[in-house]
C-alpha cells in the first residue's frame, strides 16, 4: 500500500493515545531516525550524541545540522553523550586487531581520522551530559509515560546512566538497539570489504563492557535490530522515485532544505556511489519499527550476552541462545526480541514521504501541521 503524507499523518494522530516518550543516543544521526518517531506522534525528549563511528564533535555537528535543517532545535534537546568507552582505548583496540584480525571500519579510531565538523558548527545544545539527561527524563516520566530508549551506536551513555541510576531499568518502557548481528561469520569470511563491514558489529566491538552491562540489565523489553537492518538498502529504484518526485536531481541539489536527501542520493547513480553512500538503512529500520510496532512482522525470542573476554576473537560480539539452553550460572544473559522481518514496502514508502515533508513548523504545530515540501 502506498502511504501518502496525509494518510500517514492521519495514522499518527490515531495512534496518539499510545504515544511514546523516546530518548535517542547515537554515534551519528540519520534524519529519519529522528523524524520517524515524531511522524508517528511520539515525543523525542532527548537526543544524545556520543563517540563511536565518529568523534563527538562530528556526531554533535551532524545532529546540529539535522536539527537546523528541519528547524527542530527548539523542541528536541541535544546533549553531549559519552566521549569515550568504559574500558576500551584506542591502544587496546588496535592491539586486539593485531591479535585477531583488522576491522574494515574503525570509526573515530581509524588511523588518520580527521574531524569533519568543528564546535563552531554546533549551533546550540543543552549542557547537561547525555547520561544525566537520560536519568532526568526517566525520573520525570516514570509514573506517567515511561521513557523508551533507542541506542544506535555504542551503548556507553546508557551504561553510564545505569551505573549512576540502576533502578532506571525498572522505570522505562524498554530499549531498542541497532546492531546485534548473529550468524554472520561466514558472510564476513567470504565477502568483499563492504560485506565484511556490514557484518561487523562495531557498536558492540568498540565498547563490549558497556554493551554487556546494558543488554543484560533486565529491561522489560529489549528489541535488537540485528540482521534485518542489513537487508534494507538504497537502490537505483529508490533514487529514481526520489528524483522523479522532486522534479530533477538539480532541484534537490539546489534546495538547502533537501541537503540530506542530496547526501543520500550522492551522484544519483547507485552504481557510481561509493560504499559509504550505499550502506543499509540501519538506524532508520529500528526507528521505524519502534515508531510503528505493526511494521515488525516476525520476531524471535532469545537469550543474549556480549563476549567481554579481551583474549577472544569474539570480543565484543553478540552471543545468542535458545532460551531453554542458555547459561544459568556464571555468565549473565538476558531476554531479548530479535527482529526477523519488517514491512519492507511500507518502510520505503514512509522514507520517501517524510523526506518530502515540511518539518519546519513541527515545533510549533506538532504532527498536525506537517505539509508537503513545495520545490
TrEMBL record:
Keyword Nucleotide-binding attached: no
Coiled-coil features, chain-numbered ranges: none
A GO biological-process term: purine nucleoside catabolic process
The Inosine/uridine-preferring nucleoside hydrolase domain, residue ranges: 23-349
Signal peptide: 1-19
GO cellular component labels: cytosol
Membrane-spanning residues: none
Official protein name in the record: Inosine-uridine preferring nucleoside hydrolase
Organism: Cyberlindnera fabianii (Yeast)
Taxonomic placement: Eukaryota, Fungi, Dikarya, Ascomycota, Saccharomycotina
Amino acid at each position: 500500500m502506498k502511504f501518502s503524507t496525509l494518510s500517514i499523518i492521519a495514522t499518527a494522530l490515531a495512534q496518539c493515545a499510545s504515544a511514546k516518550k523516546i530518548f535517542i543516543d547515537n554515534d551519528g544521526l540519520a534524519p529519519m531516525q529522528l523524524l520517524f518517531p515524531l511522524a508517528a506522534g511520539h515525543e523525542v525528549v532527548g537526543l544524545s550524541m556520543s563517540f563511536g563511528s565518529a568523534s563527538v564533535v562530528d556526531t554533535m555537528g551532524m545532529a546540529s545540522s539535522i536539527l537546523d535543517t528541519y528547524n527542530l532545535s527548539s523542541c528536541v534537546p541535544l546533549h553531549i553523550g559519552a566521549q569515550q568507552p568504559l574500558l576500551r582505548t584506542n591502544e587496546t583496540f588496535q592491539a586486539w586487531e593485531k591479535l585477531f584480525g583488522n576491522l574494515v571500519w574503525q570509526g573515530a579510531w581509524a588511523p588518520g581520522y580527521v574531524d569533519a565538523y568543528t564546535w563552531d558548527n554546533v549551533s546550540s545544545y543543552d549542557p547537561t551530559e547525555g547520561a544525566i539527561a537520560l536519568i532526568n527524563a526517566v525520573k520525570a516520566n516514570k509514573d506517567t509515560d515511561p521513557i523508551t530508549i533507542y541506542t544506535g551506536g555504542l551503548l556507553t551513555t546508557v551504561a553510564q546512566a545505569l551505573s549512576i541510576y540502576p533502578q532506571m531499568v525498572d522505570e522505562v518502557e524498554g530499549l531498542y538497539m541497532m546492531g546485534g548481528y548473529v550468524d554472520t561469520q561466514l558472510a564476513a569470511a567470504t565477502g568483499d570489504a563492504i560485506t565484511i563491514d556490514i557484518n561487523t558489529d562495531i557498536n558492540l566491538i568498540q565498547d563490549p563492557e558497556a554493551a554487556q552491562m546494558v543488554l543484560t540489565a533486565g529491561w522489560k523489553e529489549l528489541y535488537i535490530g540485528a540482521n534485518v537492518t542489513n537487508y534494507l538498502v538504497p537502490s537505483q529504484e529508490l533514487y529514481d522515485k526520489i528524483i522523479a518526485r522532486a522534479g530533477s536531481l538539480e532541484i534537490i541539489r539546489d534546495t538547502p532544505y533537501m541537503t540530506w536527501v542530496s547526501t543520500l542520493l550522492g551522484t544519483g547513480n547507485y552504481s557510481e556511489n561509493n560504499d559509504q553512500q550505499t550502506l543499509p538503512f540501519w538506524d532508520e529500520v529500528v526507528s521505524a519499527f519502534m515508531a510503528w510496532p505493526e511494521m515488525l512482522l516476525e520476531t524471535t525470542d532469545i537469550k543474549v550476552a556480549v563476549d567481554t573476554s579481551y583474549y577472544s576473537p569474539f570480543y565484543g560480539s553478540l552471543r545468542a541462545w535458545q532460551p531453554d539452553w542458555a547459561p544459568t550460572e556464571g555468565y549473565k544473559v538476558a531476554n531479548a526480541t530479535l527482529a526477523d522481518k519488517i514491512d519492507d514496502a511500507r518502510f520505503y514508502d514512509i522514507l520517501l514521504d517524510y523526506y518530502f515533508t515540511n518539518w519546519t513548523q513541527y515545533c510549533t504545530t506538532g504532527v498536525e501541521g506537517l505539509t508537503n515540501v513545495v520545490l
